[in-house]
Amino acid sequence: MSLKRFLGTGALLGLAVVAFMAVPNAPLATAAGTTPEWAANTTVIEACSCPMFCQCYFNTSPASHSHGAGVAEHFCRANLAHRINKGHYGEMSLDGVKFWVSNDLGGDFSQGKMDWAVLTFDKSTTPAQREAIQKIVGYVFPVQWSSFKTAEGNIDTWRYDKDMAVATLDGGKTAEVRLRRFAGMTPEPIVIRNLPYWGVKRHDGFVLMPNTVEAYRVGPKAFEYKGTNGFMITWDMSSKDVPPPAPGR
């Protein structure tokens, strides 16, 4: 089952809570057993190691990458730089909040289990905002990660126009994404619509922008790619889109 088809099934909604529970220091439900009402309209500058356009949306595994001597490995190593345009968690504003996800989907995600992810909070976010982001991320990415960690950094660049997009984490020392618009038949961007994106319920389409570089430069899982898949997308999701937490959760 492809990522597109798997994400389009109701099965992932059931995994959301399981995946969320696997996150260290996961935010808890309120004393009444419910979570606050929340909503987020978020734009993402995203790139991955797959060729353009990322085949993970149509296949059971990521693209094959050759290491020479006939040895090939399947993986999708990505950076997703998020900025919440308008959002809230209960009465707390999330407007303008930025966070970054670096990950690898691994070689086979047909059962909804991915390899690893690091969620990096921008230094400007408060502890309460981080708790809210982590809760929302559990619904946006309703999968199980073999490894999920959190970190803190300075998302010091996050900007785009119709021709390019740039996001850097710690000035690029930790991570970097640079995209360039793919030329279409007109000056307007090429957009793929009606294609599921993770667990979100609404988005304005994948704006195709191959990367000139996408890199995660810290730790044993560091990687860097040039000229591979990239796009921008703006998604919209709220607490009304997800099932209520199970009793006792």
- Average predicted local confidence, pLDDT: 86
Biggest sheet descriptor: 10 strands, mixed
In whole angstroms, how far apart are the ends?
30 Å
Structural class designation: mainly beta
Uncertain stretches? 9-32
- The total count of strands amounts to 17
β-strand amount: 35-45%
**H/E element sequence:** HHEEEEEEEHEEEEEEEEEE
Number of helices: 3
Radius of gyration: 17 Å
Describe the structure.
- Strand 6 and strand 7 form a beta hairpin.
- About 10% of the residues have low confidence.
- Helix 2 packs antiparallel against helix 3.
- Strands 1, 4, 5, 6, 7, 8, 12, 13, 14 and 17 form a ten-stranded mixed sheet that branches. A five-stranded antiparallel sheet has the order 9-10-11-15-16, with no helix packed on it. The protein has a two-stranded antiparallel sheet with strand order 2-3.
- It has one domain.
- It contains three helices and 17 strands.
- The chain is mainly beta.
Concise structural overview:
The chain is mainly β and 249 residues long.
Helix-strand layout with pairing:
Elements lengths: L2 H5 L3 H11 L16 E11 L15 E3 L5 E3 L2 E13 L2 E2 L4 E7 L8 E10 L4 H14 L3 E10 L3 E4 L3 E6 L5 E6 L10 E2 L9 E2 L2 E3 L2 E6 L6 E3 L4 E9 L11
Parallel strand pairs: 7-8
Antiparallel strand pairs: 1-4, 1-17, 2-3, 4-5, 4-6, 6-7, 9-10, 10-11, 11-15, 12-14, 13-17, 14-17, 15-16
